[in-house]
Design brief:
Helix content is 45%, strand content 7%. By secondary structure, it is of the alpha/beta class. A 5-stranded mixed sheet has the order 5-4-3-6-7, sandwiched between helices. Strands 1-2 form a two-stranded antiparallel sheet.
Length: 494
């Protein structure tokens, strides 16, 4: 056997030892002495610190002590073993770093969670996103879990003994809204590794939601110091909205501050997606003003090409063409109806923010209705999504016809109206009346846009009965991704 083959086998055995330890730790927090001893020997052999294997050492502490490891974590999944051969010191180092990162994110233990521990986990999740993106940014899906907390103290030992990750800031959006520091969530997998970004975001959102539920949130909010350590995320906002009736004094003020931070930061992201929307379509019934700034040079040249003189090498123009710049004076009416039942929390938050942004555009008249078994007209507060969210009561069932009856009187010019209906369409026993009502509006000229949900990953569960009938009507349920909804609305306004 050659020396090279023997070395390759040694590296492969080391990698396997680390991955066996990872699996054992992932499914059982109890230490396996043989695997722990093997892991320590392996990291020592490739020049990594034993602290990498200690669940009591946070990643913040680890990277403060060993700053040279930070770039390796950022490019963890970009520099895969296949780049340099499966058997190498580099592949073994990657296995050790991957183990640390995955255990921090997915091994969250049990019991109560502090604000400090939640912030630590959020930073770990951000580092995982960055690693999966090849170190290209702090991708957080709009409806997914957030990046870590600016100003949040790091602790040795996050939830269940996990450590904390690197720095990061800002809420995620999952849900839907994209995170304010992201390019829309996970980027393509380096080298085409084929992980499903939407599935990963859902898993991270579920873990974060579990951590938030394990917090003694009311006690945290009552302490200004602890409340400042919280980083707004969709899971946290959902809990705050559900529990706001039980909060008062300092706790209520801190809860409102967190909701306001989340709303403002997600709004900044969505504004960049909406800002190219036109202020209205040209009104061709109004003759164009014949001034130089309105001159349509391309059309003028094209229409006069027959006047080209080869002898003179000149184009003789006998007619000028001007652009129509007058915009339609009737505002486009946008009616957004959002199901606020428990399964649609992320959509409620994101669409409330999105409606407020469109309401700020010229020539767009926005109305907002939320419903479960009852409907509430939130139009008076549509410019302030913070106030809208404070007036919603999450939970309950679905009774779409109630909301439809509230929306109908708002339609005065069907062909100049778009109705965005956001729901999973799981009605009580009134599916047919709701569909018949929406079909009637569609036939009258209203642009009906049914949306399954509005999240960063676009994941949605929609009643198949409605999905089939909307498709037959020519208005299929669109993807739940925010960018898709923005695109549909912009097409209507242009």
């Amino acid at each position: 056997m050659t020396e090279s083959t023997e070395e390759d086998r040694t590296h492969e055995n080391r990698r396997q030892a680390l991955y066996w330890r990872l699996m054992a730790r992932m499914f059982d927090a109890e230490e396996q002495p043989a695997l722990e001893s093997a892991g320590v020997a392996v990291v020592d052999a490739v020049g990594l610190p034993p602290a990498l294997l200690d669940p009591g050492v946070s990643m913040d502490t680890l990277l403060q002590r060993f700053p040279d490891l930070a770039p390796e974590f950022d490019g963890l999944f970009a520099a895969r073993p296949s780049d340099e051969g499966a058997a190498s010191d580099r592949s073994v180092r990657n296995a050790a770093l991957v183990s640390k990162l995955l255990l921090n994110v997915f091994q969250t233990g049990q019991g109560n969670v502090t604000a400090e521990q939640l912030a630590a986990w959020q930073r770990d999740a951000t580092r995982l996103r960055r690693a999966l993106c090849g170190g290209g940014g702090e991708g957080a899906g709009a409806g997914g879990s957030s990046a870590g907390g600016a100003g949040a103290g790091a602790s040795d030992g996050g939830p269940g003994g996990s450590g904390s990750g690197s720095d990061g800031s800002g809420p995620g959006g999952d849900a839907g809204a994209p995170g304010p520091h992201s390019g829309g969530g996970f980027g393509p997998a380096p080298g085409g590794s084929g992980f499903d970004a939407g599935d990963i975001e859902k898993i991270l959102a579920n873990i974060e939601g579990d951590l938030v539920k394990r917090m003694r949130l009311r006690e945290v909010l009552a302490d200004p110091k602890l409340a400042r350590q919280l980083t707004p995320s969709m899971s946290l906002i959902e809990q705050l909205l559900r529990d706001k009736a039980n909060l008062s004094g300092v706790a209520l003020a801190n809860a409102k501050a967190l909701i306001r931070r989340y709303v403002d930061e997600v709004a900044e992201v969505l504004k960049t997606q909406v800002q190219q929307t036109s202020a209205g379509t040209p009104d061709r019934s109004v003759p164009p003003k014949r001034v130089f700034r309105n001159l349509d040079l391309e059309r003028t040249i094209w229409k006069n090409l027959t006047n080209w003189s080869p002898e003179d090498e000149r184009l003789y123009v006998d007619r000028l063409f001007y652009r129509h710049t007058a915009k339609r004076t009737t505002p486009a009416r946008m009616i957004v109806v959002v199901d606020q039942s428990g399964s649609m929390v992320d959509s409620m938050v994101n669409c409330t923010i999105l409606a407020s942004i469109f309401a700020g555009l010229p020539k767009v008249d926005v109305h907002l209705i939320a419903y479960d078994t009852r409907a509430i007209d939130l139009t008076p507060w549509v410019h302030d999504p913070f106030e809208v969210l404070l007036r919603t009561k999450l939970g309950g069932g679905n009774d779409g016809p109630v909301a439809l009856n509230m929306a109908r009187p708002k339609i005065s010019d069907p062909r100049n109206t778009v109705l965005v209906w956001i729901s999973d369409f799981y009605e009580f026993d009134r599916s047919q009346p709701l569909f018949d009502g929406l079909q009637s509006l569609h036939r009258s000229g209203v642009k009906v846009i049914p949306v399954g949900s509005v999240t960063s990953s676009g994941s949605q569960i929609v009643n198949p009965w409605f999905r089939q009938r909307f498709k037959a009507m020519g208005t299929p349920v669109i993807s739940g991704k925010i960018r898709k909804l923005v695109s549909e609305l912009k097409n209507f306004l242009d």
